[in-house]
Design brief:
By secondary structure, this protein is α+β, with helices and mostly antiparallel strands. It is built from three helices and 17 strands.
Length: 308
């Protein structure tokens, strides 16, 4: 019974011994087929590039990626033997071309140098594009147009309004200075701001309908009548409270300004309309004069020809 059991177990034991010997023989050769790859990524000046991305593409579609440390070093461990392509990149830096390496086993060192990436610049020139500089007379850079809410920024007084418009128009050509046209006519009285629809300054300086260059020319267009009745009134008041005191006087000079007026427009009939503007100004502008009054008796005693 004992001998038969030994004979039965002997093939099983021999089988286990065979596989154990096979594993011991194969394992060293299998371990010899893996290796490590390490190195440093530098720039063109030789300095380490931290945070650079390093990728290896190996056999059977193997892809591994790592980032360099603060000194620019990288490492890959447990890579199967075979041929690899190594790629590396960093912000504004790139590898000129992938580096090929054949890894057989052990530790292999390969340093990588990155170069500065040339930033491409693309300029598109369109044949039919709108030019940035135009020679059209209506597009002169000094032209200004005031309408709607833009008129609210201008002074209410006609005298101050005219002075502001002349300053905006700038110097004009010729000895006579600029001109002010009101609804196409020159030499008229400047209307109140309430009746102005639009103001154009230096619009088309070379227009043929004017007798000289338009630099410094001011064109004012008044409001037309409407088919519905509408109107407005206004009142402006000012006194010496907002004025500064003369440094040679003890008190401010008296000053009172009152400006009031209004406008109304509407239809006369189906073919005609009207626009009426009324305005009145009251200005009391005083001044303080510091003068020395001579005594009349002193003047009568002094003989200007003998006592001087």
């Amino acid at each position: 019974m004992g001998r038969s059991l030994i004979h039965a177990l002997r093939p099983i034991a021999m089988n286990h011994i065979y596989w154990l010997l096979l594993i011991l023989l194969v394992s060293p050769s299998a371990l010899a087929q893996t290796g490590s790859l390490r190195g440093q990524v530098t720039d063109q000046n030789g300095g380490g590039v931290p945070g650079a991305k390093v990728t290896v593409n190996g056999p059977s579609g193997l892809v591994k990626t790592t980032n360099t440390d603060k000194g620019g070093s990288y490492s890959f461990a447990g890579l199967p033997a075979g041929d690899y392509e190594v790629h590396a990149s960093a912000p504004n830096l790139e590898l000129a071309e992938p580096v090929k390496v054949s890894l057989k086993g052990g530790v292999q060192t390969m340093d990588l140098q990155l170069k500065v990436v040339l930033a491409p610049e693309k300029v598109t020139v369109e044949e039919n594009g709108a030019p940035s500089v135009r020679t059209d007379a209506n597009s002169n850079a000094s032209a200004q147009v005031f309408r709607g809410n833009d008129l609210d920024s201008l002074p209410d007084s006609p005298e101050d309004l005219q002075a502001a418009l002349v300053a905006l128009a700038g110097p004009s050509a010729g000895p006579n200075g600029g001109q002010i046209f009101i609804d196409g006519f020159s030499g008229g009285q400047l209307p109140s701001k309430e009746s102005i629809r639009e103001i154009r300054i230096n619009q088309n300086p070379f227009a043929p309908e004017y007798d000289k260059l338009g630099f410094g020319r001011i064109e004012i267009f008044t409001k037309p009548g409407t088919d519905k009745f509408k109107g407005s009134v206004y009142f402006n008041f000012a006194n010496q409270f907002w004025n500064t005191r003369n440094p040679y006087a003890l008190q401010k000079a008296p000053f009172i300004l009152k400006e009031y007026g209004g406008s109304v427009s509407g239809a006369l009939n189906k073919r005609a309309s009207f626009f009426l503007d009324v305005r009145r100004d009251e200005v009391d502008n005083g001044s303080i004069i510091n003068a020395i009054t001579l005594d009349p008796q002193t003047l009568a005693i002094i003989n200007p020809f003998t006592d001087l």
